[in-house]
Amino acid sequence: MKTKTIAIGIFVATTATVASFPAIQQAIATTTKMIKTPPAIVNPVTMPSIVANQRPQIEVVFVLDTTGSMGGLIAAAKEKIWSIASTMASAQTAPDIKMGLVAYRDRGDTYVTQTIALSSDLDSMYAKLMDFQADGGGDGPESVNQGLHDAVHNMTWSQNPTTYRVIFLVGDAPPHMDYQDDVKYPVTLALAKQKGIIVNAIQCGQDSSATADWHQVASLGQGTYFQVEQSGNAVAIATPYDKKLAELSSKMDKTRLFYGNDEEKARQANKMAATDKLHKEASTEAQARRATFNASASGKANLLGENELVDAVASGRVKLSSLTKKSLPESLQVMSPAAQEAFVGKTKKERGELESEIKQLAEQRNDYLQQKVVGEGGKKDSLDAKLYGAIRNQAKEKGLVYEADSAKY
């Protein structure tokens, strides 16, 4: 009883005190409000946390010597770029993938550098890659400094700290260190480090005059150095599934229907032209590799591009009835609304069937290649194996996890 009396007394005294001091009341009210309303984050950009359900990101730029001695490696790049993309796509959580390219030669050649911007539209990048031919050079050092400079400075790299950003320098000759108006590679690599871009160095051939610089590029770039044969020594194995995959991939491309304004349609037309070019000029094996990549979760962005109507309607992002006649594909503009709906539904069904068949064949193709590679000793000295090793080791720092046998060929 005594304890209860004391407690009541304390409560009454406290209430009286607060009532007699409005300033205290105001302080309590302010404090209560602050507790109920958490303070805003002043600078969320500085907090490198991955948003739930956000796919990881990979950005990779190849800085490629395109002088005369690099013919074999350039040919290998044209064949293997889709395999590299598929390897990167095989992470446990499928990443969004962008690729870019800086081709370099030397002063006095047809060009010093040519750049293909970082993009998820790998078809367009590949169509331009197909035009590169080995030529020029022949006098020792090349414009390696300029190639690296353009890759670090002129690409639109993501600012997201969780993105795996990586450059692969591929060449066989040392850099010109005697150009007075050149930005030397140590300066460029210091900036790359600040931006969180890893730089790997792949030496083609065994020119001893290039080895020390290539090692230093990898060291300063926080990357890996490795040496491959002049031809690249890439895994080049045809499979019984390649022709069918190429055919199915072509059919899949024909299911794409694009909508939008005139500017958007112009970009879409360029993408479709790039796709037509690779179907005409790329090897059957390269087309099969592209089909395999496009069938992956990461490859969807390359396959569909921007404003693809069938996917937009099927996902619920767009209602067909909400689009103006002018924004529709020409083939749909002459149809009635009911016919448009039926056509889009039919195309969706056809695409689903093609996608299912491609995935099944892609798995069979992958099993076939894995058995072949194992049977030939694992191809541990191949360009494929060394690229995969670098990607697997470096990407894990960004949360990308690859199985030991995830390399695609």
Gyration radius over CA: 28 Å
Q: What's the shape?
A: globular
Q: What's the architecture of the largest domain in CATH terms? A: 3-Layer(aba) Sandwich
Question: Any idea what the CATH superfamily of the largest domain is called?
Answer: von Willebrand factor, type A domain
The average pLDDT score comes to 88
Give the N-terminus to C-terminus distance in angstroms: 85 Å
What count of helical segments does DSSP give?
Answer: 15
* Spatial order of the strands forming the largest sheet: 3-2-1-4-5-6
CATH topology of the largest domain, what is it called? Rossmann fold
How many individual domains? Answer: 2
Characterization of the model:
The chain has 409 residues and is α/β, with parallel strands linked by helices. The protein folds into 2 domains: 57-235 and 379-398, von Willebrand factor, type A domain (Rossmann fold, 3-Layer(aba) Sandwich), CATH 3.40.50; 242-371, no CATH class. The chain is built from 15 helices and 6 strands. The chain has helices at residues 2-19, 22-36, 71-89, 122-129, 144-153, 185-195, 208-220, 242-253, 262-281, 284-294, 300-304, 309-314, 330-333, 337-375, 383-395; strands spanning 57-65, 96-104, 113-119, 164-171, 197-204, 225-228. The chain has a 6-stranded mixed β-sheet, with helices on both faces. The radius of gyration is 28 Å and the shape is globular. Residues 1-52 have low confidence and may be disordered.
